[in-house]
Amino acid sequence: MTITEHPETTPKWWKEATIYQIYPASFKDSNNDGWGDLKGITSKLQYLKDLGVDAVWVCPFYDSPQQDMGYDIANYEKVWPTYGTNEECFELINKTHELGMKFITDLVINHCSADHEWFKESRSSKTNPKRDWFFWRPPKGYDSEGRPIPPNNWKSFFGGPAWSFDETTNEFFLRLFASRQPDLNWENDECRKAIYESAIGYWLDHGVDGFRIDTAGLYSKRPGMPDSPIFDLNSDLQHPNWGSHNGPRIHEFHKEIRRFIVDRVKDGREIMTVGEVAHGNDNALYTSASRGEMSEVFSFRHVDTGASEFFRYNAVPFTLKEWKQAIADNFLFINGTDTWSTIYLENHDQPRSITRFGDDSPKYRILSGKLLAMLECSLTGTLYLYQGQEIGQINFKDWPIEKYEDVDVRTNYNIIKEKHGENSNEMQKFYEGIALLSRDHARTPMQWSAETPNAGFCAPDAQPWYFLNESYKNGINVADELDNKDSVLNFWKKAMKARKENKNVMVYGYDFEFIDLDSDKLFSFTKQFEDKTLFAAFNFSGDMVDVKSPKEGASLSLILGNYDDVDASSTVLRPWEGRLYYVQ
Ligand code: NOJ
């Protein structure tokens, strides 16, 4: 195929950018109160520029009671005081721009916090004008002990029922996530307008270049919100996706958001949006340029590989083949269309990728970390890098349950404890699951140096809001990684540079084809751009593995390898070795 048959290759800043994700609580504390803050981020912008990233996405920094680490917003137009002031945020946006980078903010509009004024008004009485801005329903009935029964059998994404009972009016409100994270009613026109104005308009007026749209597939609930069919036979409550994901009006809502953005921005800025849509087959609809919804989406299949579909902390075995196919799911749909997608292995909801998909033992951490960097840099789609990933961070080890912080872990721990007891097999399995899969692995403070006890995240005598991963003592920190020419960090720089220099085929390459898809050790493929062919061969094992040539007698020229003494002509890959070539 020729490039004219590939509208996905139309260049855009947001397709080529490498976007670095910042979790503000844990990035850099500038005032030693133990919490990261906006000034801390500003102080590290030059580090990010030097790393070679083009944009930052900062997770929610808005006013919030922090039941879900800022994804429960009490005021879209105000910075959480612990993170700083609105002026400090505008300064951060300006400084980001001065360094030639873009600024992307998080847009959390499926729900807000129970502390938001809109919800306070709504809950105050059944006749309040904002009552219909949220989903209020009477109990289905009362159980034998007089406790109200939720209106339907939907389960919260964090476990337990998706409804909270409110005694002010003796009704339940829908909340697909935490108990104080009420879902906004997108069917209500006034409510939608208020969301756009407050959460989007305000920040567009203050210069942001894009939005990462939280839970972007959930706004259109199944009409009437009926009971879900039973998918999980072992549970009374059923996964909320059936009633909430990719609902009947979801594309209409996204078109409306895009129109709002286009109408609002008068200075020619091209605003990008990236929607978190998890599962489903709507990615091409969401991201088709001609439809005018979102620029790109995050889907979850590859990060959900190895977790049970009914419970994310139930770790299950998986094959490399399954994972390869799941990764390809991210971008295969864009081939020959006007759509686009993303490449990521980590974010604030995922554990560390080296532990999950590489080998985090001292012997192979660096090599497998570099291999994952190469894999990501060679795939088509917008590349996302999560804080700490660049230093080859790994999961923390052997932490007792008391050290886990995430509301998702805490809620499920309490449910399992109540149902099965603390010493049950179920609890044991849960402990194994969270050791591998908890979101907390991504949320420990950033490790800037080997300084004890706070790794340069805050002063040694300050008390960080969350425990540090002990790995900072073993060379996994920015200062040590910068010093070591063979570090994961220095390799990320090299790999991102190679991606930029060869962006046609690395960022925009099309007609992706696996080589030896069935192999459980080799991850290998080709893709094209005009007359160029990229050939990648990655060994996902500690064994020696044969390279399979992409075509008989092909001559290969090396672009990048993760071994120092790479032998480009060798037909054998050493443990966790990867090579990228042009095929001549
Ligand atoms: C997805 C966010 O990434 C996650 O951190 C949050 O808990 C849920 N949405 C609810 O907002």
From TrEMBL:
**Tree of life domain:** Eukaryota
Q: Tell me the Gene3D superfamilies matching this sequence.
A: Glycosidases, Golgi alpha-mannosidase II, Oligo-1,6-glucosidase, Domain 2
GO molecular function annotations of the record:
alpha-amylase activity; glucan 1,4-alpha-maltotriohydrolase activity; oligo-1,6-glucosidase activity; sucrose alpha-glucosidase activity
One GO biological process this protein is involved in is: sucrose catabolic process
- Describe the location of the Glycosyl hydrolase family 13 catalytic domain by residue ranges: 21-443
Q: Which SMART domains match?
A: Aamy
Record's family?
Answer: Belongs to the glycosyl hydrolase 13 family.
- Work out whether the entry's keyword set contains Protein transport: no
Under what name is this protein listed?
Answer: LAME_0D11342g1_1
* Annotated Pfam families: Alpha-amylase
- Specify the species: Lachancea meyersii CBS 8951
Going by the UniProt record, its keywords in alphabetical order are:
Glycosidase, Hydrolase, Maltose metabolism
Task: Check the record and name the InterPro entries matching this protein.
Answer: GH, GH13_cat_dom, Glyco_hydro_b, O16G_dom_2
